[in-house]
Amino acid sequence: MSHVPAVPEPAHVSRVPRTLLDRVAQWWRTSALTLWAVAGAAGLFQLMVLNVASYTYPHLPLRGWVIVALLLAASLVARRLWPLAVVIVTSLASGAVDLWGPRGGLNLLSMLALYALLVTASTRDRLIGFSISTLCTLVPTALAKWPQVSTLSPGILILVLVLAVASISRSRREALEHGDAQLAAQSAEHRLVAQRDAARHQARVAAELHDSVGHALTAIIALSEGMQGAGGSPQTDEAIGMMNALAREGLADTRRAVASLQTAPGPSPDDAETTDPLTGRVLEGPQSPSGAAGWDRLDDLLTTVRATGISAALTETGKRPLDASCSQALGEVVYVVVREALTNVMRHAEGATRVVVSLDHDQATTRITVSDDGRAAQPGHADGFPGSSQAPAAAGHGLANLAAAVGEHGGTLSAGPTADEGASGWVLRALVPFPEGTPR
């Protein structure tokens, strides 16, 4: 049975590689520093222009023009939020100054606002803003110098230059955004394909479990029920009964595994009574409210171990979580750890005579310790049955899967030979924190 392929999780959003110039342009468009720096630099420049103009126009009301220039420079701070409004205000002010004040005194402000508009705004706003800026730049010059049309050349050149630079910047930004969108769409498509493949694989695994393991366990249940009372001795009948109970438990676990792998929504097999397809009898088993075994099934695990001739004991210190749901969730994890540990004792611990399960609760964690006095299985006994010549296909996967399951709950797991000098045996230790939200 193959492993279910993992669906890749996107570690980061896919983006088209950016050049240094792209990063600088993005920083220029988005940084608050550039927003204020441009407005401040433009304001200082306008003060310099007005200072020079005061010598050319000695009767110029300098104080009023300074106030107007600073207010318009401050309006550039809003050029990203309301680019069209800023273009209209600065362009009209620039045109008015060209008519009644020092020509070109506020042109820089209107050009900076126009650039921001052309880079970020919609097509409609760009057309309106560029038209207003063009009229406010060229009409005052034409009225003042008519019919010397050549005097319009500097204004036209500046407008064309701003339009060209803004168009290049906008085209590059839109190309990058389009590339990012394509990469994001491809990434989403790949994830959907991976999820679909994983779902198909899960369906195949569920079918394999249902058809092979489920059929075999159902047959064992039917055969063991047919043998009940025919053993000739109480010990044999007890062993047959335990075999029947273990097969039922395994079948219930298999059904839960199949239900968890099935992608189609539907009622869980444990939500209702299920019928044995061979015997026609209702298959039932003690379940916790969530459908998984918990604290109340630990004694059943020990009973199974004792039936193999191994002495099994359980000790518990401290207090379990008071909250019922938290205690149930913790109990399910404890059950899984203890079950795997005891299964390994029965399968791999040669000569084991005793096994001790210890549960120690403190304020926030439960420490699980399972120790035995057996020896590691030798070749030929890998599956727990003497004389077997073939190790199980998934040998060694149990502890790895168990460590992963404990890790999902924030815990840790370790296993190895006992540290007691001169003693044989194996010790499994797990530390499992209480579920989040557990009352202290």
UniProtKB/TrEMBL annotation:
Gene3D superfamilies: 1.20.5.1930, Histidine kinase-like ATPase, C-terminal domain (3.30.565.10). Residues 203-263 form the Signal transduction histidine kinase subgroup 3 dimerisation and phosphoacceptor domain. InterPro entries: HATPase_C_sf, HATPase_dom, Sensor_HK_TwoCompSys, Sig_transdc_His_kin_sub3_dim/P. It catalyses: ATP + protein L-histidine = ADP + protein N-phospho-L-histidine. Residues 335-424 form the Histidine kinase/HSP90-like ATPase domain. Keywords: ATP-binding, Kinase, Membrane, Nucleotide-binding, Phosphoprotein, Transferase, Transmembrane, Transmembrane helix, Two-component regulatory system. The chain crosses the membrane at residues 27-50, 62-82, 102-120, 127-146, 152-169. Its EC number is 2.7.13.3. It holds the Pfam family HisKA_3. Residues 261-295, 373-393 are annotated as: Disordered. One of its GO terms (cellular component) is membrane. GO terms for molecular function: ATP binding; phosphorelay sensor kinase activity; protein dimerization activity. This is histidine kinase.
